[in-house]
Amino acid sequence: MVATLGVSFLVVERWVTYDLNQQFNDYLLQLAEAASQTLEIVKHESNEHEEGEYDEDQLPEEHYQSYYPKTYPKLADLMAGYDRHGTLAVPKHRLLYYAQGVEWFDEKQKLIIREGDLDVTWSLSDNLQRSGNILERNKIRSLVLPVFYTPPRSETERLSGYIRASHITGVLDVQLERLRWGLIIGGVVAVSLTAWGAIWLTNKSLQPIGESFERLKQFTADASHELRSPLTAIKSSISVLQSHPERIDPVDKNKVDAIADASYRMTHLVEDLLLLARLDGSVALMSLEKIPLPLDEILEDTIEFARSEAEKKDIDLNSNLDSDIWVLGDGQQLQRVFSNLIENAVQYTPKEGKVTVSLFADNETAIIAVEDTGIGIAPEELPHIFERLWRSESARIERREGTGLGMAIAQTLIQVHGGKIDVTSKVGVGSCFWVKLPISLHT
Q1: Residues contacting residue 131 through CB under 8 Å, at least 6 positions apart
Q2: Residue 438 has what pLDDT?
Q3: Which label site among 102, 154, 268, 356 has the fewest CB atoms less than 10 Å from its CB?
Q4: What is the mean pLDDT of the chain?
């Protein structure tokens, strides 16, 4: 849009500039043509005027000097003997009204008279075109028009002289400057109105989508909430059955275990969906209790919770935590994020592997790194890691009970705390999740 307006601006500016310059040149041509009608009379009267000033008692040298008068006669003086209403009828132009001049020259380019308030100092050039020549110097534009005269009873025309019409270009420059400012202001107004209209139309078009999204979030929250009650009942019933194994037919034991496992996974999924629905709402974000927290202590507690699972697989779970690094946040939610990252690292790392948790500060940013020697993530799968309900094929094979919401929840919680989360990985080598949080000054 801006490019289109810019091109339109240039086209209009060039076209109007050309048109105004053409009007300017046409005016000079009209002025010169009007003056050319009087050239023969002016030459005749000028000769008589000079002869009338000659004194027979003057010496030849004095007569020669007086032939070129120091001051030129006025057109009105030369034409006083003619009964005319306006010797030179010059058409008026609405843009050109001051600082102009007309000069009459004979065939030898000798100046005869000059009219107007503009003094042009440069001489006429050679090889002048019959249609006129235009020359511009020092913000003065001149048009020189050769005048040809055909004597009575003759078909041969001869050069009678030249007319030079001049006018300053300042008034033209003022008009062009006004034009450019008008186009600039108009363009800014047009862009502003267009942008405002585009924003308004975009908001109107997105309003149904926003409403649908809100309804979807509400449905997710309501459905998750409603599913909690029957799932709780199922889990309670299964727990009662499993607490009395003698009442279960050996043939049905595997079925009961499958139901218990499915109910656990479903409960976990519902809880995650409900949490995401809450985090998507601004009210829930405002309700997070943020206080200064020592990150090293939170990570130490989280690592201890995961250590038993790591020991089952002979995984070396170690840490490298700098102390006295504080952030402003919700301790429970941050622990949920770190627990998810560390548990995933342990789950997707083969036996006798290694998981390292690091904490250090970089300027005003706390950086937490969870690095493992696990199965890794393919490059084409990395962009989808934080998508909801997405799991890679290798992750599904390695861990069937996952919901695909853990990374989405972790990303949302970190963003709520003003931080960022990212991942680097190589298949068969391992992965490293990076969490960056703003450091809080603790006193």
Answers
A1: none
A2: 94
A3: 154
A4: 80
17 vs 422 pLDDT, higher one: 422
pLDDT digits (tens, 9 = 90+) for 293-310: 999 999 999 999 999 999
**Domain map (residue ranges) of the chain:** 2-168, 205-283, 288-438
Share above pLDDT 90 across residues of the chain, in percent, rounded to a whole number:
21
Write out pLDDT tens, residues 59-102: 444 443 444 444 566 666 565 555 444 444 444 444 344 578 89
3-state secondary structure the chain: CHHHHHHHHHHHHHHHHHHHHHHHHHHHHHHHHHHHCCHHHHHHHHHHHHHHCCCCCCCHHHHHHHCCCCCCCCHHHHCCCCCCCCCCCCCCCCCCCCCEEEEEEECCCCEEEEEECCCCCCCCCCCCCCCCEEEEECCEEEEEEEEEECCCCCCCCEEEEEEEEEEECHHHHHHHHHHHHHHHHHHHHHHHHHHHHHHHHHHHHHHHHHHHHHHHHHHHHHHHHHHHHHHHHHHHHHHHHHHCHHHCCHHHHHHHHHHHHHHHHHHHHHHHHHHHHHHCCHHHHHHCCCEEEEHHHHHHHHHHHHHHHHHHCCCEEEEEECCCCEEEECHHHHHHHHHHHHHHHHHCCCCCCEEEEEEEEECCEEEEEEEECCCCCCHHHHHHCCCCCCCCHHHHHHCCCCCCCHHHHHHHHHHHCCCEEEEEEECCCEEEEEEEEEECCCC
Residue 294, Cα to own-chain centre: how many angstroms? Answer: 42
CATH code of 205-283, in short, is 1.10.287
- Decide if 205-283 and 288-438 have a common fold: no
The model's pTM: 0.49
- Fold topology of 288-438: Heat Shock Protein 90 (3.30.565)
Question: Per-residue pLDDT for 57 more than 60?
Answer: no
pLDDT of residue 265: 72
124 vs 70, higher pLDDT? 124
Contact between 409 and 275 under an 8 Å Cβ cutoff? The reply is yes
